[in-house]
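Example record used in the benchmark description.
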Amino acid sequence: MTTGANGRVTGLELPASDLIGSIPPELARLSHLETLNLERNTLSGSIPSELGGLRSLRTLVLGVNDLTGSIPPELGDASSLEDLRLRRNELSGAIPPELGNLTNLRRLGLNQNLFTGSIPLGFLHLQRLRFFHFADNGGLCISGSAVFAEWLGRFDVYDGPLCNEGDREVLRALYEATGGTTWTGSDGWLGEGNLAEWHGVGTDSLGRVAEMDLSGNGLTGRLPASLAQLASMTSLQINGNAGLTGPLPLALSALSLQEFAYGGTDLCAPSDQAFRDWLAGISSHEGTGTECSPPSDREVLEILFDATGGTDWTNATSWLTDEPLGDWSGVTTDSDGRVVALELSGNNLSGGFPPEIADLDQLRELDLVFNRLTGPIPPRLGGLTKLTTLDIGPHQLTGPIPPELGDLSSLSFLYIGWSDLTGPIPAELGGVTGLRWLDLGANDMTGQVPTELGGLASLQLLHLDRNRLGGSIPPELGNLAQLETLSLRENELTGSLPPELGEMAALRLLYLGNNAGLSGALPSDLTGLAALDELHLTGTGLCAPTDEGFQKWLADVGLARVRPCGVDAVSSAYLTQAVQSTAIPVPLVAGRDALLRVFVTASSATDEGIPRVRATFYRDGLETHAVDIPGSSTPIPTTLADAEGSLAMSANVTIPGSVIQPGLEFVIEVDPDGTLDPGLGVASRIPETGRASVQVEAVPVLDLTVVPFLRAQDADSSIVEIARSMAADPDTDEMLADTRAMLPVHGLDVKAHEPILTSTTNVSRLIGETGLARRMEGGTGYYMGIMPERVVGGQSGIASLGGRVGFSVADPFVIAHELGHNLSLLHAPCGGAGGPDRAFPQENGSIGVWGYDARGGGALVAPHVRDVMSYCGPPRWISDFSFARALSHRVAREAGATAFAAGRLAAPRRTLVLWGGVDEQGSPFLEPSFVADALPSVPRAPGDYRLVGLTASGDELFSLSFDMEELADVDGWSFAFALPARDDWAGALESITLSGPEGTTTMDRTTDRPMAIVRDPDSGRLRGVLRGADALQARAIAGGLLEAADATGVAAELSGMAGSLEVLFSRGVPAAVERRR
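Model output (structure tokens):
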């Protein structure tokens, strides 16, 4: 804070100061304030309109917060403003024209919000503005007219879209598609000037195309479907261009044309009735009178390519060539050459959704996920009666879901999530009786959940979360006997939970959180959900009955986040190990120290200090521990919120881990000496009667093997010392500090693996090599590969989700993050982390409740800090949600695992090592296979993938059905097996094929991808996984073809390794056992 000579406040600068709550309007009383900087905090609510009264204010910086609502027009009265920055908030609506009154403004930052509309005309008065940022909003743009172009030309920096940028690209596409270089008139076309200067183009006040007259201009070829993106165009005249051929794009019907002339061309009108009705409704229409014949599959694909920016696709192999359609990337055809599947996910498709796709009448699968399609979903898709899979999210699709999709009688999978769809959910979807998967989440749909959905007897997943659905949950959903996942979270649902939901016998996951209008006790019928693994009801008024029967059922649910009925949501004491909630208790880890916090509150303000507190702990009815907490001079707070937000305002003591055991109970006596005035209303006992029970879960110490990788061409041996240090003292080593502090562990058993020589720094390959080591060695517990960050670069970590393998750079946070993935944690929704957990309770990825960091004497962690599983921060901590879920995973997956590992009787034997996965591009791959002595490991259950080994004559040697492990932090999947090898396989194996939903890949005797596995023949421990030239060098030195004295590079590293080594070599399919020492 700064003051002027008169003592009046002139500056208030509190950036990155952990501020929470709303901006107080009382700041407007600081009438001499010149600078207000509250950037990089967690402020919420709206911008106070009162700030507009600060006539001396020159700098207002409120960026990087969580502010919502619109910009108050009153800010236009702050006439001295020179610098206004509001970036990275959640502000929305139109930009108020009153900001055009800020004639002293030099810098304006509106970027990364949710603003819509266009920059007001009055901004032309801001003649001193030099820096203007308005990019990355929900639809904010600036006029592309000549007057605005001149104004922008005076800026030092501006960043944001012109309203007519899309129109310019459409006109470029028209020029290229219709032979623009040979047009009769093309003045201005493809230039950087105003569009109104382009021959035949008229524009509106935003510079958008309003009319186009290219009649008799020598246009040839087909009209591009992207013309439909000229949303402001009301007149289109292309008559007299005899070279124009083919059908009028169906997408044109989205335009509100008043005049349309295409006579004197060879264009035809599609027979689609809705399109012909549109033509008939144009007041001035001059056509050819020619009706198109149905398009061929090749013509439809050409239209799709044109309409969705095919020249910018990530993969367009063979498209628009004369090759068979089945050779076009992403296209599958049947024996007659008809298109049966389109799989173009993540392929950079953009533009409108071409209705012509509905003419692919043999189509069974349509997968367009992770592209950038805009506009409405064509109702004509409802005519694809053979379609089984419709996967078209996330996009930027708008408008309602067409009721016609209810005619997709063969559909089993429907995903239209994460778009901008509005309107109600069509009741007609309830007639698609074969649906097994229905995901409409993360849109903006309204209305009620249709009761008709209760008739989808085959449905296994129903996601309607993150919409604005209202009303009550229909009891008809209880008819969904096969449903395994039901997510209705983050809507506007009201009322109580229907008892009929207890009839969904297969239900495993129930997500209803963040529906504030849901209320009441859970019906006892829910105890019929015997398969339920997770129950998430935070942010609702629902509560769990406290009777013994219901509580016993609830205890058997793996993760239940619901408060008990009849218990004050604001408890007066709790134990915390990393994080705790006053509403929904977080279970504790047995054997780990915990901080007891007792919240003594008074009914009115007082100067009395916090009194002495006595805590007594019990287990199995017997007292196990008692402790006195001395009083303090800190005045007794009057609210729990005040008490919980400061260690000084609660009575605290560390309870040793020996006390924290299953069956724990406690009693708190407040002011046992009776020194306080009873009139203060301080509770003398917690709980008032009986004992408070604490959920404590016993888990084994975390078994972790750290695998240091050395890059063959640039070995950095420092990573070996880091691994050894982690193993030598895991309870204090700094590299494991975040793991100990945040994750639900009470001890670490860390072993340092011998260094493994590698040819790669790609994290996806490194996790595969880490998994290979665990598989071939018969390893137990978790394996974490590590490398110095400077060597890896780029992606810093990767882990198998809910699995036992990960890779991390040598960084404490990244190690904890990747182990979190191993403990089944998905990403928290912040920082662009891929695949965020849809059940995570805070949209901004914050921990939401108070955390506690026991390091360095102990400190609280504020609720606004981001979760360890997000990509935001630092600082970062673990949320109650993540801690509870990770602990639930450990209880379910690790119980008895140590005893099982210790009792294993299997011995290494001759195996065929098979490993590979699905890469980030969604393509299956196989790594070279090996014959090696290893502990056998085969798939435990069948799945979506299959490995088949064949002889040269096509006889099957083996066939495995399995599911892969999903990878977190990158898109991908992985597997590794050691299949017991039979003697008659020697020399007989000709090919290995991996097949699955993403396609097929094969290795055979012609595959030439040299790879060498280096290991200790006595222990079986891996010492190297080498590729390409490195593998050939390893083979040479092991075979005596290269003298150690002459060794360089990888060979030198191998020569320097202690002990005997064995080199296994393969180019893909092992012809026979090739091992050298």
